[in-house]
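Here's a chain:
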Amino acid sequence: MAEPYNVSMSEEQHPIFERAEQMVGHAAEQLESAKEKTRSLYNTVKETFSPVTESVSWIQDKFPPLAWFLYAAAILNAIPVAFFLGFLAVTTLIVFSIAGGGIFVVEGFFFLLGCGVVLPVIGFAVFAAIIAFAFVLLAYGSWKLFLTVFRLLGFTFQEAKVEIAGTAQGLKRAFSHTRDEGETSYGH
């Protein structure tokens, strides 16, 4: 066998090229193995039928009309055999087409059956997503409305923070003052 042509791009080859070389080498080994098996099978068949072929060859040499008969039979049967092989190919194609059509019908049935299961699940998931989106949108819209109203009233975040903190401190002092004095009212 001839040595394969080796193209080197540099001193170190890229791993892809190494993998490709391995794959090509493996394919060549497999091809060589298949060739050997085919040759072995051919030789076995040839050896098995060699007594018959040698006998026919010897009879053809000794009795030429037999050779004429064999050649005439081969020539005259070539057309019917060709028609038979064509018929075989067409009927095989028809059978496979019908079988393929049947497979498509059965697959279509199972596809529709699967759609009957998955479409309600998808519909429920989309409905749940719409509900969740509505709640998030409501919260977001409420927050934006709160901020807009807050700004329209003239408050800033810092003022609101101070105001809320001041109110909380005032309430705290008021409650602690009433607790210390034992009063029940919040006022004066």
